[in-house]
Amino acid sequence: MSTPQPRPSVAAMPAYVAGKPPVERPGLVTYKLSSNENPYPPLDGVVEIAAEAAGRVNRYPDAGSTELYDALAKAYGVPAEELALSTGAVALIFQLVSAYCGPEDEVVFAWRSFEAYPIAVLAAGATAVKVPVTEGGRHDLDAMAAAITERTKVVFVCTPNNPTGTSVTQTELDAFLAKVPEHVLVVVDEAYAEFVRMDDAIDGIATYRSRANVVVLRTFSKAYGLAGFRVGYAFAPAPIAATLRAMALPFGVNVVAQAAGVASLERQAELLARVDDLVTERTRVVEGIRAAGWDIPDAQGNFVWFAFESAERCAEFAAAADEVGLVVRPYPPEGVRVSIGEAEANTRLIELAGSFP
Ligand code: PMP
C-alpha cells in the first residue's frame, strides 16, 4: 500500500515551530517571553463584545468582514478596496507567495528574519534567496537589491525585523524601492509598526499608496494584543489587495475576531497608550542590558535580541533564563530573542543580563 506524496518542496517543509509555553514551577512565577505577545490582557469592552459575538458562532461570520474593513478604512484613511484581511498576517504571507510565485520563481528576504517566510516559499514550490543581515542585525538592502534576478517575484522587508529588532528608515526603503524592478512585489512586513520610535521612521501607508508594487502587512496580534483571535491585514494597491482577498480561505476571519477587531479600533487611543508603556519598558530593558556590558542592537519592536556565536551559547542563555522563570526564544546559532513583558519579567531579564557569564 503506498501513501500519496506531497510535492517535494512540501515534503521538505518543516512545520512552523511556536514559542515554548512557560512551565509552572512551585514558588516561581514564570513568564512567557517567547512569542512577542502583548503582556496586557484585552481591554474590558473588547472582551465583552467578543463574548457577545461568541454567542453567534452557530452562524458563519460575515464572509466579507464588512464592518472590520470599514473600520480599518476609516482608522487609516484608505479605501476599503486597498485592504485585505486574513487569519493573521501569517496567512497573508502564504497568500502572497502562493499568488505571485510558482516553482520557477525566487523570493528574496533577509536572514534571519521571520520563520514563516521560508515555509511559505516551500509551500509554493518557489526558491528562497536568503540575504544575511549585517553583524548589527540590520537588513543589508544593497545586498538584497543585488540578489534580485529576473526570476524574483517577491521581496520581504521585515521592519522592525523579527528576531533582531532593527528597523529600516524611510530614506533607506525609498532608495531600495528605486532599485527594485516593477515586476517584483515588495512586501513591507510591519507587524511591529506601532512600537517604532525613531527618526525617519517608515510611513507604510504613504509608501504603498505612491507605488504599484508595494504591500504593507500589519496585525492585531502585537500592539492590539489580540494574538489569540488571529487577524492581520494588508494595505496594497487595489489589484493586489483583490488578489489577496481572492486567495483567502473563505470565512477565514471568524465572528469573534471580526467583532474584537472593530471594538479595538474604536479603542485605538487606549491601546496605543499601552504601547507607549511597553516602549518605555523596552527603553528600560535596552538601557539595563547595555549597562550590563552587552552590545545589543537597536530594539524597535516589542522584543530584544541577544546575538551569540554558537548554538551552545544560545542554549546556555535560554537555560539560564528558564532558571529565573523566563521563557525565551533561541534561534541557534545566531542568538536569542526575548519579548518585552510584564515589569517583573523585564527586571528579571536585566538582572539575568548582568549575571550571565
Ligand atoms: N510578521 C512578523 C514579522 C511577525 O513576527 C509575525 C508574528 N510573529 C507575523 C508577521 C504574523 O503575525 P500574525 O499572524 O499573528 O498576524
TrEMBL record:
GO terms for molecular function: aromatic-amino-acid transaminase activity; histidinol-phosphate transaminase activity; pyridoxal phosphate binding. It comes from the Bacteria. Keywords: Aminotransferase, Pyridoxal phosphate, Transferase. Its EC number is 2.6.1.57. Residues 32-351 form the Aminotransferase class I/classII large domain. The keyword Transferase applies. The modification N6-(pyridoxal phosphate)lysine is found at residue 222. One of its GO terms (biological process) is L-histidine biosynthetic process. CDD domains: AAT_like (cd00609). It catalyses: an aromatic L-alpha-amino acid + 2-oxoglutarate = an aromatic oxo-acid + L-glutamate. InterPro entries: Aminotrans_II_pyridoxalP_BS (IPR001917), Aminotransferase_I/II_large (IPR004839), ArAT (IPR024892), HisP_aminotrans (IPR005861), HistidinolP_aminotransfase (IPR050106), PyrdxlP-dep_Trfase (IPR015424), PyrdxlP-dep_Trfase_major (IPR015421), PyrdxlP-dep_Trfase_small (IPR015422). PROSITE patterns: AA_TRANSFER_CLASS_2 (PS00599). Its cofactor is pyridoxal 5'-phosphate. SUPFAM superfamilies: PLP-dependent transferases (SSF53383). The keyword Ribonucleoprotein does not apply. It is an enzyme of class 2 (transferase). Homodimer. NCBIfam families: hisC (TIGR01141), PRK03321.1 (NF002878). Belongs to the class-II pyridoxal-phosphate-dependent aminotransferase family. Aminotransferase that catalyzes the conversion of aromatic amino acids and 2-oxoglutarate into corresponding aromatic oxo acids and L-glutamate. This is Aromatic amino acid aminotransferase. It comes from Nocardioides turkmenicus. The lineage of its organism: Bacteria, Bacillati, Actinomycetota, Actinomycetes, Propionibacteriales.
